[in-house]
Amino acid sequence: MPEVFDVIVVGAGPAGEVVAGRVAAAGLSTAVVESELVGGECSYWACIPSKTLLRPVELVGEVGRVPGLRLDGPVDTAAVLAWRDYMVSNYDDGGQARWIESAGVTLVRGAGRLTGVRRVEVATAGGGTRTLTANHAVVLATGSRPVIPPVAGLAAAKPWTSREATGVRAVPDRLVVIGGGVVACEMAQAMRGLGAREVTMLVRDGELLTRLEPFAGQMVARSLADRGIDIRTHEVAERVERPEPGGEVTVRLASGGTITADEILVATGRRPATDGIGLASVGLPESGPVEVDDSMRATGVADGWLYAVGDVNGRALLTHMGKYQARVASDVIVARARGEADDRPSMRDRADGLGVPQVIFTDPQVCAVGRTEARARAEGFDVRAVEYDMGQVAGGYVLGDGYGGRAKAVVDERRRVLLGVTFVAPGAAELLHAATVAVAAGVTLDDLWHAVPSFPTVSEVWLRLLEEYGL
Fold it and tell me: In angstroms, rounded to a whole number, what is the distance separating the alpha carbons of residues 202 and 423?
């Protein structure tokens, strides 16, 4: 007989955990299905381990900028990797599984797939099957998977993806990185900082981090190059050869050259993990993102019982945005289950359209929220942009010799509010939330002028941007 719950969540990553915890706290019986580790990609193979590996690189940069301080020797890579293992609980999800159960949620281990209306079939590790049905809602939170481009021999060479890079057991002497986005930049810097002798980046485009303001990619590229990373723009791999499993890998380039390395990392994006989760059984396309409305309900599904949160809906592939979407969906599910109206503004998604914040944890850090100037102009806004050298802020230059960075604000001239803000500087991540509040809440420049930054802090850059604007 089917096991019946009010809500079934497929996927126990950060977004799935938030949905399960919130609807259970509201009194709905809840099950969460997970085929891997409870806590998902972010906890074990992405955000937490990658930032742990990057932290020593950041501190090396900080020490190098402060006169009177010096490092006594190279980074102790073994100690860093041991700390990484601690931070990911040695890849043991017992603690997070206990949290799930303490929240009153039933954890079902296995691979879940839709088999009909409000129905999920779970293939368990022991070869059995459990059938779950939902009274109110099924929530898909299956995340995303890395894309392996169709380069001859690449898949057969068993390349690293972000999982292998963040879970590295021994830093390779020579590493080739395919890609110029977030994972490519972060992991190239981390591997170089942890002892890789040669790191080569193959970047199809003419610059790094192309979805951000151009100066962001340019400043990161200079930092990577200063650390000895070889960045080859307008370069693509044509063929990859690895005759022996685990042996040397040879990358033949479209330009005619070759590179030999010990490992190759593919960092060319991610796609929603929708394969095999039974979307066709409810009339949806088998592949691609699950299209949702602003309450995270899947469009094209009668009666509005199916939801999708996080990477699987393709809106904003970031952990914090998945958790935000999970809060939106949870409130709607609970309201509908109680027979209440579910279309109140507080229950609708706003952040995806107004201000998605993102931090890239390289040194310097790249922090951005909202629209770039180019995107704002393309969308028809009356735009004015102002920039400021963050090295000229008193709070910046007291942090060390050579501290530098750039800030940019994109202003909607008609409403005099911020459409987007970008900071590129060491330690700039802690500046971002103020920008996120300003963008998401539509705070006017005239009101921001009265938000006085403390002296001497880097936050004084806010005042400088407003002065550049003319206030």
Answer: 26
- Measured distance between the N- and C-terminal CA atoms of the chain, rounded to whole angstroms: 69
- pLDDT tens per residue, range 431-465: 999 999 999 999 999 999 999 999 999 999 999 99
What is the DSSP-derived secondary structure letter of residue 444?
B
User: Can you identify the CATH homologous superfamily of domain 155-268?
Assistant: FAD/NAD(P)-binding domain (3.50.50.60)
SS3 category, 53: helix
- Give, in degrees to the nearest 5, the angle at Cα 55 between 232 and 370: 70
Radius of gyration in angstroms for the set of CA atoms belonging to the chain, rounded to a whole number: 24
Q: Could you tell me which CATH class the domain 364-469 is placed in?
A: alpha beta
- CATH architecture of structural domain 3-39+93-145+271-351: 3-Layer(bba) Sandwich (3.50)
Whether residue 44 contacts residue 38, with contact meaning beta carbons closer than 8 Å, is answered with no
Asked if 457 contacts 467 with a C-beta cutoff of 8 angstroms, the reply is: no
Query: Which ranges in the chain are annotated with CATH 3.30.390.30?
Result: 364-469
- Global pTM reads 0.94
Tokens of 354: 């107004």
Reported as a single tens digit per residue, the pLDDT across 273-319 is: 999 999 999 999 998 999 999 999 999 999 999 999 999 999 999 99
Nearest to 130 by CA among 201, 238, 31: 31
Distance CA 354, CA 251 (A): 41
pLDDT for 397 beyond 90: no
Judge whether 5 and 30 are in contact, CB under 8 Å. Answer: yes
Kindly report, as residue ranges, where domains of CATH 3.50.50.60 are found in the chain: 3-39+93-145+271-351, 155-268
Report the pLDDT value the prediction gives residue 343, as an integer from 0 to 100.
Answer: 59
